[in-house]
Design brief:
The complex is a heterotetramer, with two copies of chain A and two copies of chain C. Chain A is of the alpha/beta class. In chain A, 36% of the residues lie in helices and 11% in strands. By secondary structure, chain C is of the alpha/beta class. Chain C has a seven-stranded mixed sheet, with helices on both faces. Classes of the chains: A alpha/beta, C alpha/beta. Chains A and D meet through helix 1, helix 2, helix 3, helix 4 and helix 5 of A and helix 1, helix 2, helix 3, helix 4 and strand 2 of D. Bound molecules: pyridoxal-5'-phosphate (PLP) (2 copies). One pyridoxal-5'-phosphate (PLP) binds next to helix 5 of chain B. One pyridoxal-5'-phosphate is lined by residues 71-72, 136-138, 169, 171, 213, 217, 242, 244, 266, 281, 283 of chain B.
Chain lengths: 474, 474, 403, 403
Amino acid sequence: MELIFKKSAPGRRCTRFAKSDVPEARDLPAKYLRIAKAELPELSELDVVRHFTNLSRMNFSVDTNFYPLGSCTMKYNPKFTEDIAKLEGFASLHPLLPQLRLGGLLTQGALEVLYCMEELLCEITGMDNFTMQPAAGAHGELTGVMLIAAYHRSKNEKRKYILVPDSAHGTNPASAAIAGYEIINIPSNENGLMDIEHLKEKLTEDVAAIMMTCPNTLGLFETEIDKIAKLAHQKGALMYYDGANLNAILGKCRPGDLGFDVIHLNLHKTFSTPHGGGGPGAGPVGVKKELSEFLPVSRVVKRDDGMFCLDYKQPNTIGYIAPFYGNFLVILKAYAYILLLGKEGLIRTSEQAVLNANYILAKLNKYFTSPYPKKCMHECVLSGVNALDIAKFLIDRGIHPPTIYFPLIVKEALMIEPTETESKETLDYFIECMIEAARLSKENPGALKKAPQTTPVGRLDETKAARDMNCALL
Amino acid sequence: MELIFKKSAPGRRCTRFAKSDVPEARDLPAKYLRIAKAELPELSELDVVRHFTNLSRMNFSVDTNFYPLGSCTMKYNPKFTEDIAKLEGFASLHPLLPQLRLGGLLTQGALEVLYCMEELLCEITGMDNFTMQPAAGAHGELTGVMLIAAYHRSKNEKRKYILVPDSAHGTNPASAAIAGYEIINIPSNENGLMDIEHLKEKLTEDVAAIMMTCPNTLGLFETEIDKIAKLAHQKGALMYYDGANLNAILGKCRPGDLGFDVIHLNLHKTFSTPHGGGGPGAGPVGVKKELSEFLPVSRVVKRDDGMFCLDYKQPNTIGYIAPFYGNFLVILKAYAYILLLGKEGLIRTSEQAVLNANYILAKLNKYFTSPYPKKCMHECVLSGVNALDIAKFLIDRGIHPPTIYFPLIVKEALMIEPTETESKETLDYFIECMIEAARLSKENPGALKKAPQTTPVGRLDETKAARDMNCALL
Amino acid sequence: DGKSEFEVMRHLKNLSAKNATDLVCFVGAGFYDHYIPSVVDHLANRAEFYTAYTPYQPECSQGTLQAIYEYQSAICRLTGMEIANASLYDGGTALYEALMMARRITGRNRVLVDDAVSPIYRTIIYSYTKNLDIEFVEVPVQHGQSDRAAIKKHLDDKVACIILQNPNFFGAIDDHSDISCDAHRVGALVVESAYPLSLGLLKTPGEMGADIATGEGQSLGLPLSFGGPYLGFMSTKREFARKMPGRVVGETVDTNNRTGYCLTLQTREQHIRREKATSNICSNEALCALRAVIYLSCVGKEGLAQVAKLNYEKAEFAKSLIGKIKGVSVKKNSPTFNEFTVVLPRDPKEVIAAMIEKGFAAGFPLTRYYKDMENYMIVAVTEKRTKEEIVCYAQSLESVLWS
Amino acid sequence: DGKSEFEVMRHLKNLSAKNATDLVCFVGAGFYDHYIPSVVDHLANRAEFYTAYTPYQPECSQGTLQAIYEYQSAICRLTGMEIANASLYDGGTALYEALMMARRITGRNRVLVDDAVSPIYRTIIYSYTKNLDIEFVEVPVQHGQSDRAAIKKHLDDKVACIILQNPNFFGAIDDHSDISCDAHRVGALVVESAYPLSLGLLKTPGEMGADIATGEGQSLGLPLSFGGPYLGFMSTKREFARKMPGRVVGETVDTNNRTGYCLTLQTREQHIRREKATSNICSNEALCALRAVIYLSCVGKEGLAQVAKLNYEKAEFAKSLIGKIKGVSVKKNSPTFNEFTVVLPRDPKEVIAAMIEKGFAAGFPLTRYYKDMENYMIVAVTEKRTKEEIVCYAQSLESVLWS
Ligand SMILES: Cc1ncc(COP(=O)(O)O)c(C=O)c1O
Ligand SMILES: Cc1ncc(COP(=O)(O)O)c(C=O)c1O
């Protein structure tokens, strides 16, 4: 579709503001003014609406398509949580209000949401405290690593390394590196789990933490997780839990009970807030009580009289990692989701998520290489002949492709996370398409190469994109 | 797509209700109960959402396509009016509240909307009073004809006929017939206007009213409208104005000033409330003061103390034509629209609507037969080689076809109403497609017959539909 | 002159704030405060649905067409009938259309009307037919239900139809099967006005032998909206399809034999038949019908039964509390669904005013329509009312009456 | 245990009602009560936008991709820069990313920070860099604007960048062109944190010679939301593109030479580069960026200028009234946009509490962040504030102070 800037016509207006009801003010000195008006498009309301409505129609999305994008938990998000996030008492609330005297009284509902959410997440994960502030999973990781650094600093230790399995999500090493650590990669063994011997080798007193995802990105539960945790703790290292895959174990086991010290959750994955085409998310971080004193300020506390307020007096805090209290509206949606499901509902969630993934694995096992052919947790990883071709073929069948070429340690990986909200009928349709893709990739690979053909554009020249670096119409 | 009933799977649930918090009640006697539960589909929320979201994507609509459906005024509707209709104080208000003592106090905002809307419509049309109750244009017509009958009855006359031009919308004769009148059709002359000689012939003292649309469905303004009105009034007949085409004359002239006694408006056309895939609309009826006493009850009145209340004491009323006060939320949106535009905006509306139609007429004149090649008002009627083929061709170009085969008096009619909200760029694209269609229909009519090809289904077997009468999955 | 969106919005927010938003609602009388699942709004707000119009061009309107076909199917399943139209304006005009249809089918001009049919609807049908040659016979109620003997007395081969309602305006439930038998024996039709949500539980018009079912669809996912837009539904037997008013969608196939949907039986309609059409209706309540089918898909088979049962149980609970208040009696001659008749020791109009000050819309006084029912009011209790609210209602009523 | 949608909704409506909804807002401090055109919500609520994820598969994500490309273009045009990323979490973390980027580009470790950069953001950048080897130099403000002399004193070839903000936290407007010149002379970069709505009127970071522009996009169609989700934007010069953090969408062609959009420069990112990535960011604020580009499309070229002017004029009007109140002075050493500093005769904390009781969120006390500014508060006035509200504010302030 034509770019919106090209649809501009001088003089057209969409939003009109009320005429000024105050006296004209003296013009600002010219040196403070921009030379020419910003070249934004001039459009009617219809122009804007038709443009973006038709753009939206060029997307696949959970509401329109099966979207088994591995590691992203593209579950269906109950609609009413959107309504809640639009309630004026939440959506229009100024974040500085609780920092004004008497203003806190007028934010009690919002603070209660944050407080209750922290309690719920502690209960779900077995941690002692949470900060709701991180805006996404990676942001949570960075916060978590900063907490780990603060912990060691408080012990007057300056440890240098963080250990990360080679199956880890890219954000883990990136977050640790950005926080100032060096990364040591731990390879996976032939079962797709952490190679403990290798771990032992690297696990020195200079290691600040091990960052793990459990189940890992192969969809496998680390069977020796307690052993790993014990080893780490023996060396004074902390255990970090990347909670992106919590959907697999909700209500079944708690990272806190498995020996983890720090955890981040992806509310936009496990707790069902929509992914927004790439965000916003929320990545709350939970810690065991030994680390609570380091949590970022402010902290929401409940006074004896039942009032909620913000506590900034945390001498050992790592400081401020967000302007306020986190992506509040995202947290709010997740809170509503948890209340809706309740404990039983959360347990059913993980059971169904794991069942759905195993159903797919069982049905597709014989058509694809399954690098680790055991049972999986909430997602399974298959290896295709050509993952990219299969992905594009699925698009033509109305299915959003699985995550491909990740984890990096599996060749031609197809990482499939069906989630609990999809029906057997949908899974069966997906399985049927996958089998057809497998057949075609043997019998007629050329046909696959032409896919997708039903989309507004076919395969794109990504090299040209990177070379031209045309990233804005200036 | 598969029918929603076929997607049902036993045990699946979308909406869950709270468990009962009251004691169990004794079962109702079996003879009052249905034998088996209604076979509604059993679905998850995702099933429901994906089904209807994907269904919606199979529609053309104003927000996604140019939609120049003649006589329907498919203008773009400002989005904020949708928000207003969702305000709880309007959307959740029980209509019986003003009929309870003290309840009226709690509906003052809603009653004010109705009252102000009546005043605005009087000002816009030059009538003396309005009832907001009719739910659509045809409903307004029926109400209007009932008012006409009551008027004549009050004069102790029982007139038998209503005159309707052959270019009239089908609802006009249908409404008059249903109300108990016989219809006399008046043919159009070679200029597409009412044949006055013929009219004079039929215009006896037994004629209750003449129903006219002005501009008429050919998009032409009846140049002798004052003469027609005078003739009618001389015979004691009333003049009825079908206001579906008011968009053409907004702010330019007022039916009340042209000699009309009764008028209905289509708020869902002229006043920009969305068409909802076929409704709801609102068809308020305005009358000159001689007919005000017959208006349906209740009437919204403003007391001296500024309070609004409902008046049921209208001895000569035609009675109750709706359960309450009309399609309130539709009226509300139209009210917001009128406030947004103001007088100037309404005038610009008709100017632009007429300009757009004439632009199309001027550009397409040489490619199509224009039965009445003068200037048109808000819409133009062309005659194609094969209106149906052209319509289907336009679909493949992403344009909703004009109204076809209407008015009946033009062969292969294409009735094009672009409305004021469409840009020149859009009109040019439409013109380009129409010219291509005209060319193809000469050079390669077979190609046109295959259209549309870009839609979920091609041309449908309508005969089979009527024969099979498969109108429900039982 | 013109105003900005912000100014108009502010003005209308102010007006909206002048209306009640926190009255606890026990008023029904045909229009009920039911819960609307969030999904209904989200889906009905799809621009492709609400900014389209009547699907004259089926190839680019399959969304609307299939949804209407599904709506028609759901209405048939709900009412136990064979064919339904795409919607009429509201329950009252639907009833008017039904009697006009009965008249067309039978060629007769007399109509029996049960006195317990909503007086709001009865006034409507009388208004519309004032210029027509129709004779109405109102049959008074006996112990809150339809009076069989009186009906029989009036039933003969002059009668086009008999109009009934279940539950009736007093809230009473009935089984009209015997009346249908009697009517059919003399060639008269039975028109049953139904409360669709109650059909999660109650005997259907079809099961009772009705020929035409109509009613107000507001309970199926439509907000109360101060009176509209609402949804008139109509379903009937297959044999009467061509006499039915309104748009109808049918299933068919395209040139490649793919299933598709289109408007059908259009030769009954005004745009083809003009003055000979079965009705003048053109724009209808399509978006409301869409809401209804989405609502019915959301609650589903089990949910509709559940919500109907909740309504029944909550009303029974309310009855039990209200019946205990000194001087107040609850009418018990027939079972009820979610609405019932209460006799107060004082003029209900005053009592209702006093209850409004306590935050309740307490009920609807019957005297407005039934002159001899001076101290009567009808009270409705939906699934949205909590036990707490019901208890509080009863306490408030007692205190209004006795302190 | 689990609850029904209706119950959860009721619970959260109750909580929501405990929060302020009718305070008239004069608080800014970087987060403003601007009008959001209705269209923004309607379009951002399209399910295909908000239930999709990062557009890894471009063919079935062109909607999101083109929208981001358009967002990037709009940000470039707004800030006067050449390339922008697809979003960062918020204005504070964007500033942190900017300084990390400057460090990568220059290989230097000293950062000058203007003291009038939002203290909310300054605390953030200090927190993130605690474990890193970065030396911060805070440069105090001179007469409300950046202190040229002090900056010059600290500028040398050890400095990675200097961080500025316009308008600054006190509301003052500046032209930082001269500082950019000085910085570039020693090879240091200039990072400018901007208030995007003010750029309808004010000199752009690009025009001032900044190398990296960042800021909080909340003013572009995002509700205040009690602190989030917000939108960090970042734009820079083309030469620095490969050092920029975050997702970037680029234009390209498909196999049939049709224009299309895809994620590009991914080799900078964590999912490819892991510990060597330019940032760890993965999920960002895409939907907020979508809102911003819709907002900017709605207001357009003229509208943005108009709304910026309205903000300026209303603030000037408020200044004129507030300045007349006995004992109150408005800081006037530099021009301001829509926020300004007021010196009260009493502790602003008390005054603000008293104003809350009168229905106003009156401003933000500076002493929270600037110890020596005890009686100072900043007051923001947006286009939403009517003359009436401003007059009433001034009257209330006077009465709080003097009666
Ligand atoms: C395993 C894992 N960890 C971390 C992340 C990063 O989370 P976010 O995208 O919210 O920053 C992801 C996201 O895909 C993930 O799958
Ligand atoms: C000229 C004319 N009159 C009357 C009507 C009937 O209006 P409604 O569809 O609202 O009943 C229409 C609708 O298309 C029309 O175009």
